[in-house]
Specification:
The structure holds 2 protein chains of 2 kinds. Helix content of chain A is about 40%, strand content about 25%. Chain A has helices at about 10-15, 60-65, 90-95, 115-125, 130-145, 160-170, 190-205, 215-220, 240-245, 250-260; strands at about 20-30, 35-45, 50-55, 75-80, 85, 100, 175-180, 210, 225-230, 235-240. In chain A, the strands form 2 sheets. Chain A has a 6-stranded mixed β-sheet, sandwiched between helices. Chain A is globular and about 55 Å long. Chain B is mainly alpha-helical. Chain B has a single domain (about 1-215), classed as MetI-like fold. Chain B has helices at about 1-5, 10-40, 45-60, 65-80, 85-115, 115-125, 130-145, 145-160, 175-180, 185-215. Helix content of chain B is about 80%, strand content about 0%. The chains are: A alpha/beta, B mainly alpha. The interface of A and B includes residues 70, 103, 111, 155 and 166 of A. Chain B: This is Amino acid ABC transporter permease.
Chain lengths: ~260, ~220
């Protein structure tokens, strides 16, 4: 996908593209003695798709969860669309409403139907009417290809279907940015692609995305930038082609070589 | 059967007394217990401390002492005259506040069965703590604790008889009324037992109905 081409004038995302939307500034995080994030700084522009990769335990999931403060951090700052991330309470809830999150384990509300999962946020947080929320939800479910399952409970769906519902649930809030925390790591191989296809579609539509993943194919296809993390630090940032063909750091070379041998 | 048919007035008024104590005390226990259970998992330290203190003091006190406090210590403090209605209200409070501690702990164990990801997903949508609890966590917690919760309410049903010692008319007091009318006390107690067995069977039936309705596919 060619990111450099000017997007059509009608695209809402492209008009304001290029301003920083998520700014992570010198963030440190400790779990007791463990130093999980070491002086992490990252700026993601509006409409940009950033893929975060790295070995397990490198802090990439922690970084992703820190951006909407599901994890607290020790020092530093995180700004979303210019606003400092509030510590707690209603202000934090309001900010989270603008940040979509997709989890490794889907986390669909087990007692609610697929449709109710998608409409809960719009109705309770955005105060939309039930009818409006359901209309919008059905459009989103159609878009991710699970419209037929709207009345079922999450437990009756396959993993891939559940994750696509989870993406629809996050999109229903009309978020400024979407965070994906290893969205395909809990899926059977044949279900990974159905989820990745939805994500590639989102990226092409201009959604700002931060994606923690092990899917290098997705990184090559949809990412504007690859961020490589190891031991709680950002070791290297580069365009996907550049990163995969000519990694600069020894740590990244080592990581990539292990991927290729398998 | 004469002991029933000849004294229908007594049986109906005492059964009504038991049901009023059970339903009103149970509602109070459910509301208060849910609140306290939620407080004990809340992110606010003061709320957690108050919840823990409440459970630890009231649950560790024998029910009869809780009744003593409400029936004898509270009225003079509040300047209440002990009429029938006041006694009944105080008995409902005693039962409700006592049972709420068990409800709170049952709910809390239910909350612990709800995967943490459910609350995280709800928070990530922008729901407040209160909404996360009432819309996502508690509905699932209730479903997973129906059997132990029903045990709490069965215990409450039987505990209503303690109110008999504090001049509140219920099935626990019918024996003395019947003996005044010259009925065999032993037979009276056997019939009270039968009534309780039937009432508890009704609760068990309600439990099964709820369990079937609220099966959550995971």
């Amino acid at each position: 996908m060619q990111r450099s081409e000017p997007a059509p004038e009608t695209s809402n995302f492209s008009v304001r593209r290029g301003e920083p939307l998520v700014v992570v500034d010198h963030v440190e995080k400790h779990y007791g003695q463990f130093h999980a994030l070491k002086d992490v700084s990252l700026s993601v522009d509006r409409g940009e798709v950033v893929v975060v990769i790295g070995p397990s335990g490198s802090g990439k999931s922690t970084l992703c969860r820190t951006i909407n403060r599901l994890e607290t951090f020790t020092s530093g700052s995180i700004r979303i669309d210019g606003d400092e991330l509030p510590k707690e309470g209603k202000a934090l809830a309001a900010l989270r409403a603008d940040v979509g999150m997709v989890f490794q384990s889907f986390n669909l509300f087990a007692h609610l139907t697929v449709l109710d999962n998608v409409t809960l946020g719009p109705i309770k947080v955005k105060r939309q009417s039930k009818a409006d929320a359901e209309r919008a939800a059905r459009v989103l479910l159609e878009r991710v290809g699970v419209a037929q399952q709207a009345e079922k409970l999450p437990g009756q769906l396959s993993g891939g279907q559940q994750q696509r519902v989870a993406i629809a649930r996050a999109l229903a809030m009309n978020p400024k940015v979407m965070l994906f925390d290893e969205p395909t790591s809990a899926l059977d191989p044949e279900m990974i692609n159905e989820v990745l296809d939805v994500m590639v579609g989102l990226a092409q539509d201009g959604m700002t995305m931060i994606v923690v993943t092990h899917e290098m194919g997705f990184a090559r296809k949809a990412a504007d930038r690859v961020v490589f993390m190891a031991d709680g630090q950002i070791v290297e940032e580069a365009a996907p082609e550049e990163f995969f063909t000519a990694p600069k750091s020894a740590r990244a070379k080592d990581f990539l070589s292990k991927l290729i041998t398998h | 059967m004469g002991i029933i048919t000849d004294n229908l007035d007594l049986w109906s008024s005492t059964l009504l007394g038991t049901l009023v104590l059970f339903v009103a005390g149970g509602l109070l226990a459910l509301v208060l217990g849910t609140l306290v259970g939620a407080m004990r998992v809340s992110p606010i330290p003061v709320a957690r401390a108050v919840g823990t203190f409440y459970v630890n003091t009231i649950r560790n006190t024998p029910l009869t002492l809780v009744f003593f406090a409400f029936a004898f210590a509270l009225p003079p403090l509040l300047g209440l005259r002990l009429t029938g209605d006041v006694s009944l209200t105080l008995a409902i409070c005693a039962l409700g506040i006592y049972t709420a501690t068990y409800v709170a702990e049952t709910i809390r164990s239910g909350i612990n069965t709800v995967p943490v990801g459910q609350a995280e997903a709800a928070r990530a949508l922008g729901l407040t703590f209160g909404q996360v609890m009432t819309l996502v966590v508690l509905p699932q917690a209730f479903r997973s604790v129906i059997p132990p919760m029903m045990s709490v309410f069965i215990a409450l049903l039987k505990n209503t008889t303690v109110a008999a010692g504090f001049s509140v008319v219920n099935l626990g007091s019918i024996r003395s009324y019947l003996s005044e009318r010259g009925e065999n006390q032993f037979v009276a107690i056997l019939w009270v037992m039968v009534v309780f067995v039937v009432l508890v069977l009704l609760l068990s039936w309600a439990q099964r109905a709820l369990e079937n309705r609220w099966k959550v596919a995971r």
